[in-house]
Design brief:
This protein has eight helices and eight strands. With 233 residues, it is α/β, with parallel strands linked by helices.
Length: 233
């Protein structure tokens, strides 16, 4: 079971690693769903931790539809992130009519140079997620999809999440469940859905407040639960 934890600063990154996170999603603007962090922070975090760092590439929070200027900005950010030594990036793009923006992917993915690529929760705005998964399978750089299997909490979309996991089985793309996950009930969620990767943000922070620091006690407890053997499915 892979545990990915959101980090927004150096303290988050160090606490997450010490608390048992297997991977970081490094972002800024957590209350806006995450935007690209400053490259100075990216470089610091990559040097400071041993676990993989995946960096958000999202230039604004207005929508997941990006202009040619936005795409150019994202391209420059990907180049800088790759040069920092980060293990991966997190991105997503949709067309104005709500489909995956393959034009954007074709412009950006060749710049990743071996970094892993997560397609983020723009995926949850798709009307047909199975069809979206099939589209993403055409791009070998994409290694996972971060999704709540719909517009709400992942914990409330068990059947849809299980369908995605089954649709992805045997392929190259992993399903990373995120948004609304709680340490309480996570074992049952994993057993019912079959996911092998989970993503936590506010639920492992003090007071479950997105703007508070990571709570090391909660994170260590979650990490222990995921590794205790009860989540082996």
């Amino acid at each position: 079971m892979i545990l990915e934890v959101i980090a927004t600063c150096m303290e988050d990154a160090l606490t997450a690693e010490a608390g048992g996170a297997d991977r970081l999603e490094l972002i800024t603007a957590i209350t806006e769903g995450g935007l690209t962090p400053g490259i100075g922070l990216v470089g610091q975090v990559v040097k400071a931790v041993k676990i993989p760092v995946h960096v958000m590439v999202r230039p604004h929070s207005r929508s997941f539809h990006y202009s040619s200027y936005d795409i150019s900005t994202m391209a420059e950010e990907i180049k800088a992130i790759e040069a920092s030594g980060a293990a991966g990036i997190v991105l997503g793009a949709l067309t104005p009519d709500g489909l995956i923006d393959e034009r954007a992917l074709e412009a950006l993915l060749p710049l990743t140079n071996g970094m892993q690529v997560t397609f983020h929760r723009a995926f949850d705005e798709l009307e047909d997620q199975i069809a979206g998964l099939r589209t993403l399978e055409n791009y070998p750089q994409i290694t996972r999809v971060l999704t709540s299997a719909g517009p709400g909490s992942a914990m409330e979309a068990i059947s849809a999440m299980r369908r995605l996991v089954e649709a992805a089985r045997g392929g190259r793309i992993a399903i990373l469940a995120g948004s609304g996950l709680k340490p309480q009930g996570i074992t049952s969620f994993i057993e019912q859905t079959g996911v092998t990767e989970v993503h936590f943000g506010s639920a492992v922070r003090i007071g479950q407040d997105a703007l508070s620091p990571i709570d090391p006690v909660i994170l260590r407890g979650l990490s222990h639960t995921l590794r205790s053997g009860s989540c082996s499915s």
